Amino acid sequence: MPASRRRATLATVAASAGVSVATVSKVLNGRSDVAPATRSLVLSLLEQHEYVAPPQRRGEAAVLDTIEVEFDTDLNAYSTEIVQGAVEAGTELDVAVVVSIRTSADRVGAWARGLVAAGRRALIAVTSELTAGQLAALSRAQLPLVVIDPLNLPQTPVTSVGSTNFAGGLAATQHLLSLGHRRIAYLGGLATAGCNQARLHGYRAAMESVGAAVPPCYVRSGHFHYQDGVAGGAALFDLPDTPTAIFAGCDEIALGVLEAARARGLRVPEDLSIVGFDDTQIAPMASPPLTTVRQPLREMGAVAVRTALRLAAGEKVDSHRVELATELVVRASTAPVSSA
After folding, report:
1. 58 in any annotated domain
2. pLDDT tens for each residue of 13-26
3. Integer Cα distance of 309 and 80 in angstroms
4. The whole model's pTM is what?
5. Which Gene3D superfamilies did the record assign (predicted)?
């Protein structure tokens, strides 16, 4: 690294503060025998110098390498599958996996340095919206990053793991078209999310291939949440030409649509067919069981762990983007379009 970008040392911070290295060490270790004004000054300079504590040295006892799997929202059925795969891979590779939820209030520099100070070998960010500041902070801290289904598409090249979202969206819509549906709507997540865009493009490609119209009101975006399915479904049912089928961008949205249909007295699949995406554990437990596109979520978590370890070891990865195959799983929430 250039001299101007080298990691600051305790001596660097101590010299700037006009105190001893021992005093800076006491502040880092949370000791109480430091004057409040001195503590405040040292903490400010640690932040200013972007100080990162060196990883703890291994003692005689074995210490597992640790990877952090971080979310920026509450965990759900999708998250659980990712974590399960990551933990299983960690167990196989003798690596500890720590799961965390980061709040937007976290200071970017302190957040990245804290991960390194805690001994993390790499970070796996799941369905996160990454800013240029976050990416720069991780780069300065020399902490490898792997992203699973990012909610935005960073301009800086980022190693990511996902699935064949376009192919999944295409398969879901083709299934509905094969059942005779032509008035098919799409309820997706964030419009800026790369995975959502790919699923939407797959839907549009299938519709265009048979000349089926896609009115603007048939495409709605929101979040990958149950309530978005409830609200989105209700809005679609208020249209003059209501859809006979809905492709939902995730299983949670699909379950919300099921509830909106129930509230309107619509029968699924007799009056409305629904296809989800993910095939989380809630899909077969829905009523009726949900037709959905299966993502290999556990394998995605496992691949992310293996990739993160390779990056941490200084190895080159074959591709900065890994896409695992999706598969349509047909259950009872889809049926041929009613002739009524």
Report:
1. no
2. 888 889 887 888 88
3. 21
4. 0.81
5. 3.40.50.2300, lambda repressor-like DNA-binding domains (1.10.260.40)
